């Protein structure tokens, strides 16, 4: 079981009837890179979050709570503190 940390930027746009529509997640090389990308995207997206998740990619087993590095705008409830 090889554990690794993934750094992800997830952005959102308006969906039907006030819902959120997720853009494809973007994996980047570091938490700092994720934060910088999310900050830039926040000017043009309804919502954006940068986070890191640690786990076993092959098994699909990740920690329950990712480390949030940046969030802005409207996000799904999963990203509430």
- The N- and C-terminal alpha carbons lie at a distance of 29 Å
Q: What is the total domain count? A: 1
Largest beta-sheet details: 6 strands, antiparallel
| Average pLDDT, all residues | 93
Proportion of beta-strand residues? 35-45%
Helix-strand topology string: EEEHEEE
Assign a percent range to the helix content: 10-25%
**SS class:** mainly beta
Give the low-confidence spans. none
Using only C-alpha atoms, the radius of gyration works out to 13 Å
Number of beta strands: 6
Short summary:
With 81 residues, this protein is mainly β. The chain has one helix at 31-41, and strands at residues 4-14, 20-22, 26-28, 47-56, 61-62, 67-73. The chain is globular, with a radius of gyration of 13 Å.
What does it look like?
- It contains 1 helix and 6 strands.
- The protein has one domain.
- Helix content is 14%, strand content 44%.
- The chain is globular, with a radius of gyration of 13 Å.
- It has one helix at residues 31-41; strands at residues 4-14, 20-22, 26-28, 47-56, 61-62, 67-73.
- By secondary structure, the chain is mainly β.
